[in-house]
Design brief:
Elements: H1 2-13, E1 27-28, E2 35-36, E3 46-47, H2 48-51, H3 55-65, H4 69-83, E4 94-95, E5 102-104, H5 114-126, H6 132-148, E6 150-152, E7 158-160, H7 169-177, E8 189-191, E9 194-197, H8 211-223, H9 226-242, E10 244-245, E11 248-249, H10 268-281, E12 293-295, E13 301-303
Antiparallel strand pairs: 1-2, 3-4, 4-5, 6-7, 8-9, 10-11, 12-13
Helix pairs in contact: 1-3, 3-4, 5-6, 8-9, 8-10
Length: 319
């Protein structure tokens, strides 16, 4: 029944791809099939982190159903992006689905762009490391990120010009521990001699985000260094102490305040990701082993498509 429902939903989403370029609209009316983009997006553009974060789900749906249309839609996006000019070797965050031109040349591995790069690596992993095209696109992007988006503070710490980059976890742990609540702010900057702090009031909130805990889990699985479990436990205690409310959990408005104010919102990713990654961090490696499972950007596990895997009902042609 879940596969049937997934196919029904995917069929309702396919009209979003009916653009001159094949780059989908950000939104589609499920009844009429009419698509549109966010009004605030530059020059009527679609957003890299949205149209570039479909590969895993559509690839898996083609595998399960034997219908190549979903696979072809996402591969078309990849082929088009490969032909585009890339300033500094990176992909700008806005692409006009009518003209096939970049809406502007702003690049980032924070919001609007982050999960596109994530999915390049995960597409390779999901393919049992046979999708060499995705891996090359990822490697080339990482080289450009290291060259153009990383700088050092006066104290020698590295900062990436983004608010959610998962790779620099030591820095993430640092900025969590300089706050009153031991929870990290939404974003941080290096300002003069000050290291890794949220400068503006609008950056000081924590809304139960999972990215740092997600990274603790990956690093625990890769290294089994106990400090990652220790840091995860500290995060769990801080969330329990400062974010639990009578009806669940809430974000806080200022992680630097010892008497935080709640925002009265429990984000959906708190259950889907934050708590799931905390649970996995303290579970054995035999629970969702990484050689068999890849997590999409919202922490839903999808199986690695091993050629020898006979437990799935996929179409051999898709494999």
């Amino acid at each position: 029944i879940f596969k049937i429902k997934a196919v029904q939903l995917a069929e309702k989403l396919l009209p979003a791809f009916n653009t001159p370029t094949g780059i989908p609209w950000a939104m589609v009316n499920l009844k009429s099939g009419v698509g549109r983009n966010w009004g605030w997006a530059s020059a009527g553009s679609s957003i890299l982190a949205e149209f570039g974060t479909l590969h895993m789900e559509f690839m898996h749906l083609s595998y399960l159903t034997g219908d190549l249309i979903y696979y072809k839609k996402v591969m078309h996006i990849r082929k088009l992006l490969q032909k585009m000019d890339r300033p500094n070797g990176l992909y700008p965050n806005y692409l006009n689905p009518r003209t096939g031109r970049w809406g502007q040349y702003h690049t980032s591995v924070g919001g609007l762009g982050d999960s596109f790069y994530e999915y390049l690596l995960k597409a390779w992993l999901m393919s049992d490391k046979t999708d060499h095209e995705a891996r090359k696109m990822y490697d080339d992007a990482i080289e450009a990120i290291e060259k153009h988006l990383i700088k050092k503070s006066r104290g020698g710490k590295k900062e990436v010009l983004a608010n959610k980059l998962k790779w620099f976890i030591l820095l993430s742990y640092f900025f969590c521990h300089v706050t009153a609540l031991k929870l990290g702010p939404e974003s941080f900057k290096f300002d003069g001699a000050v290291e890794a702090v949220a400068v503006r009031q609008a950056e000081k909130y924590y809304i139960l985000r999972p990215e740092v805990i997600e990274t603790y889990w990956y690093l625990w699985r890769f290294t089994h260094d106990p400090r990652y479990r220790q840091w995860g436990w500290e995060a769990a205690l801080a969330i329990e102490k400062y974010c639990r409310v009578s009806g669940g959990f809430s974000g806080v408005k200022d992680v630097y305040s010892s008497t935080p104010t709640h925002d009265d919102v429990q984000q959906s990713f708190f259950l889907a990701e934050t708590l799931k990654y905390l649970y996995l961090l303290f579970s054995g490696d035999d629970l969702l082993p990484l050689e068999h499972w890849v997590f999409n950007t919202e922490a839903h596990p999808l199986p690695v498509l091993h050629l020898s895997n006979t437990t799935l009902s996929g179409n051999p042609a898709v494999r």
